[in-house]
Fold this protein.
Amino acid sequence: MKLPTPSYVTQRLIADYLDRETSRIDALVAAKEKMLALLEEKRAALISRAVTRGLDPTVPRKPSGIDWLGEIPRHWETKKLKYVVSKIGSGITPKGGADSYQSEGIPLFRSQNVHFDGLRMDDIVYVDSDTHESMSNSKVLDGDVLINITGASIGRCFYIENLHGAANVNQHVCIVRPEPMIETKFLYFTLRSDVGQRQIDLSQSGSGREGLNFEALGNFSIVVPPLSEQKTIIRYLEKTGNQSNEMLREMQQSIALLRERRSALITAAVTGEIPVEEMRP
């Protein structure tokens, strides 16, 4: 490799300049990342409060019967998840494993596709109809909630809405299919809230997050308000969520631009694009 080799004095000047400028950029990135984390925490707290306390702080309350959950509105109920859903189950490894994946066909959702903010299709794989039929127990339906049950992404979840055609899941993704007494989106917000995520943490054995079994998931305690209130809470969380998403996107874009600026600055300084005179303190 051929590298530019200015004099030692110039090298020192460039190094000092880059130390100052990158430190300034790094401080801005750190501050924005802190704000990003605070926004995420605020949003998580908002969701948890809405699905366990409701939107009206003046309604009479009662003990939930669960120490860590505290009080809930008097007319709400606490139920085991298995009593408000008709299905809890995951897929299997398709016969042939990754060799069975196609470039088109029936979508197969894997854990990398399931995120709290949506189902990401950029890394989706497909299976043919025969494979899909052989995995009949894990066919996805509109209204299902998908939740990751293994690996580092355990607990990440999202819901199926406006499904066009068939779909399936592999062994790392669990289908939770709500009964009419609970709205799909309310179940999703509950599972992604502290109520759901805390129980996922408590269900893990040892220091690792090895996996979430169907029995443990079915025994999760959730709070179930009347359907009319569920719908009101969903509308409220979607509205505030859209506002939060816009702020988060702007913050993430700002951080990305700062990182690009840092990289470009280093390149410009070490290749002589920035006059030496401009680097002096």
